[in-house]
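Protein 1 of 2
SEQ + STRUCT:
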Amino acid sequence: MRSPHLSNTGVAHWVTVMALAILTVYRAAVMAFLGTGALFLACASSAWAAPGDLDPTFGGLGKVTTPFFTQAGDGATVYAVAVQPNGKIVAAGTAFRSPQNGASSGSEFALARYNINGSLDTSFGGVGKVTKDIAGGQDYAYAVVVQPDGKIVAAGSAEVNAASSYTRFTLVRYNPDGSLDSGFGTAGVVSTDFFGTEDIASSVALQADGRIVVAGYTHDGIGRRFALARYSVDGSLDASFGTGGKVTTSFFGFDDGATGVAVQADGKIVASGWADPGGANVQFAVARYNADGSLDASFGTGGKVTTDFFGVNDVGWALLVQGDGKIVVGGLVLPAGFGTDLYALARFNPDGSLDTSFGGGGKTTLAFSFGYQRSLAAALQPDGKILAVSWGVDGSTGFDVFSLARFNSDGSVDLGFGNAGRVITNVLGSQNEAYALAVQGDGRIVAAGSAFDPNRSRGVFALTRYDAGALNSPAVLSSLLFNPASVVGGTSSTGIVTLTAAAPAGGALVTILDNSLVASVPASVTVPQGATTATFSVSTTPVGANTTATVTGSYNGVSRAGTLTITATAPPPSAGVTLTVQATGRGGEGVVSSPAGVNAKVGTISLASFAANTVITLSATNNRDVIWSGSCSSGGKKAKSCTFTIKANSSVTANVQ
């Protein structure tokens, strides 16, 4: 091992390392004296752990491995991980059977859920894990997201059948107990084809209204393209997005692929990945879309941005959207003439320009001291620091290892994390591959992938958890937002408060204050213990002109303000009697009248004037079922239309199904 030259800084670092070593010995002695009780360990680990240390309260050593099938040669890999509000951890990926072990050699969607201490959660699938074969071929879950109702959506790809290598975007939704959600697609499964060839979904995100956005790539017969699809809550393609619910985007006309997707607070959708301009210089690529799937012309050039690092091979693997609207893309880049991939981050302003306050001109890189990296996942801490994980060969052992790094919010390497900003972890032995990363509500860091199990000669699910350092401090209020952010006066919105970390025992009481006379909010809302978010209802009064209400939340000495826009209620027509129709329910739909006059989009109110004693028929667009109430009622049942005779000013509420 090479001896480093010790400058003054190096001496200080050496002294720090020696002090930590002495502290470790002291801790071991105290633990032995006290009998290493579990309660003491739980309390002591967070107090003594350094940022980047494995968390011994997780699986005993900070590591957990999980096999799926029972035969030697069967394997499994985690490609995505998510943390539920209650702190449980969901890992998604693939599990496969070795060809010599029976009827199938295909792979299946595989999910496991873990308790906070790393043990399998047996309330999920009975044993803590579930698998789903799609069509007998190779199935991979590359992304996962947990809905507010606790249901879990896994997205990836599945072969059309065992005899075909053609793949489709594939989504599977699970109930909180691990059973398939029969109300989603066909028996819990949705499959989407673009051009009949290669469709790979690599990332998934939820909109505030519950619709699901998936991004990846497709092959259109000429080359690969960014591919996005948006689904309604029941799994059907959302026809209001792109063409029939689907969008494809080409950057240079060669190969492109999306690896990340996120929904901004304003409803715009960001996708990132890579684009090939033709040659050996693949670049980071980002596209931003309006809510209808069209490219956002206010971003970059025509809605698209590409970024080159060293002119060789730059692949964007991960996407993060900060609270200030800036966009971070993480990936791996290869310097010219240098055979080792570097971790790379680029940060963009909301208009798509590089953020020159980040790193060098908006870009930063980091090298580990060993060979090639293969993939990269990233996560954002509440304090703005950025985590990135990959895997590569440790030159000192020849083993593949989890490779975790942390950057400060300005793009510099966080030298207080691990060893000069880097942490490597050998989970089981010779081959450890990290593909996924998440941050818990309390700030602790979860990485996941696979580890080679010598008893099975294959990989198994592998998770590690690390201490984050100062992030384990008490939670404060991070944001206060509204969904929707604009309402018609007289209708309501939902406020959302978010903490920087999980709420403590007993919950976190956030006080709420409104400065206007046109909105009404509760005096407080409680974020439940272990959760990071809570919601509250906001009612508004009709207004004659557009106005705003500023609502302020406060917790633990920190206040955050959110603005709700309240638009004017249209004045009633001057002639005849007035019919007021409020449309609620399924987004993108509307309610119209015969005779014409009413045209209410869901989320709005329409007023129309008719002569008294006119027979009026109301119906939804696209022949949707509606539950009618008010002056024209369906008695709580679904009906395509509602007919009544208007004699005086009347109002109807239409809940479009």
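Protein 2 of 2
SEQ + STRUCT:
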Amino acid sequence: MRRFTKYGSFLVFNLNRMLKYQLVKYTNNKSMTRANYIIFLVSMTYMLFVASIAIAVPNHGLSLYGPKGLKYLPGQAYKYSDPEAEKGGQLVLSDFGAFTKLNPASLKGVPAPGIGALIFQTPMDSSADDAEPFSQYGNLVEKVELAEDRLSMIYHIYQHARFSDGHPVTADDFVFSFNLIKEPEYHPIYKQYFKDIKTVEKIDDHTVKYTFAIFNQELPLITGQMTIFPKHIYGVKGKSFGSDFDSIAVGSGPYTVKDFEFGKHITLQRKTDWWGKNLTVNKGRYNFDQVTWKIYLDPVAMREGFKGGDFDALMVNSSRDWALDFKGDYVKKGYYGKKKFPHTRVAGMQGFAMNQRNKIFSSRKVRAAIAMTFDFEWSNKNLFYGQYTRNECYFDNNPEMKASGIPFGNVKTLLTKLRKKHGASFVPKTALTKPVGTPGQGLSLSKNISMANALLDSAGWVIGKDGIRVKNGKHMTFELLLASPDFMRIAEPYKNNLKKIGVEMKIKVAQIAEYEEILRNFKFDMIVTGYGQSRSPGNEQRYMWSSEAAKTPGSRNYMGIENPAIDELIGIIVKANSRKELIDAIQAMDRILTHQFYIVPHWYIAYDRLVYWQKFSRPAINSSQSAIINNILEWWWWDKDKATKLKEAWASGISLQ
């Protein structure tokens, strides 16, 4: 038996009233023939049936694969939570690079850590359960109704939801937050992400309807990730969204800003009267009374700061640090732990990204030559202590999504049609004849250097008197822009290898604010970047690879990809009606991306590396779909007994073991 919304019930109720009215009318009006009445009765019954199937069923969550895809029932806490977790204490973390604003969605500047997740909220809460590729449960929204055709959706907002200043969260705030897409200073990443939401309409103070411009299986769930801003704060007339809200943050989340100093620190305070503290999705969540981030501009100082007890936990991103550091007396005494947290996340792609806006990189031959000169095997052995696996494609580390072997079936059909339609320059022959992998994979460095020199020769680049290749008076010289000096030890050997093929790579390390501005305007030659992926790729592929994103400042199409075959595949991905159609399109796109050599592939690691002081407790299950540092913020808690024992042991110099 279907349940109905108050609007659905009203419609069906009135159709029933009409049937009863006509029955009375027929009884009192003998002029209507029995045949006409039967026709009318059948018509009205059909309308009642259509109304009943057209009205969406209100649900406590959404899944990419319908209600049956929801793992959790109403009132059931996430399995990776501990509903009995204690509240209290303080968590101190570090962040690298100065922040310049408290607005998480404006175009310019670097947002403060934690703002987006702890101060502001989204309509829905995305599950991080390993068994749910893409499911959401009510966050600001009590119930959601999704139309059968997935082209419209109604949110029922919690009536007791409040912003931190006490103002109620209403449909006006949802409409306002959507309309920010038209704001020039709203970040273009979000404009791209939410572009297929056609309209947002207020039905009443706590009900809002979304209508979608296209069918996209993911779009209703994408909508649930939109940050909701209070209209009465960020919508004040005469105020600029991009510049007038850098120093304030008013949201509906569990924390407020207690104090901050740009570029130095920020402390968030938990709201003990937070409106959402008793919701099912928040059981055992947001447990620290205060969360502080200390800002570091030097990674060495940050590492030493942790070892000195200046902050509580550090996610280690350096294989060298993991292998050689964090071995001192405090580790032996058990003052802080060093632990691997395995994960099953899609690896995505990390690498040296070549910006094709620089004409040097416009040639596929040149890109291949530059890519095959990077000696991963040497780096992994001598620099990474054998901890990493080479990235072979853009959806690595996931057997369902990673393309394997030579393309066949529908993937082969897709690639063949696209090659015929758009040409070999956009869909290279190797995408159909070779598996995914890195240029020169499995060959020695000397062999790869020989092949790279031959490729550059054939592309018309001639070795000059100074050993640097030249073509049409332009030297093959470019700059690698880094955000951290940590990468110098990796970049320098690569630089030396490039010299062997007549390529000069200069290296520059920029401060984070300058770095972000350069990236936003694509004013670089090469950068180190990563493209994380999920088990449910969709809309976000547009601002990574689409031709439109290549022309949009602030997008993540750093390589300047303008490939109509990829554009077409993104359209298929976004509109995919089934899991198989989605995976086929993803694998076809992955093969084109990989065989176009847009990036020099790096590596990935299938576990998070964490060091942390022994004053916390955590749930029995770690959600591997979230980075461990996020799980600490949301699900760990300060353990008073552990903290006391640590303090006493540290003071007396005895072991905790």
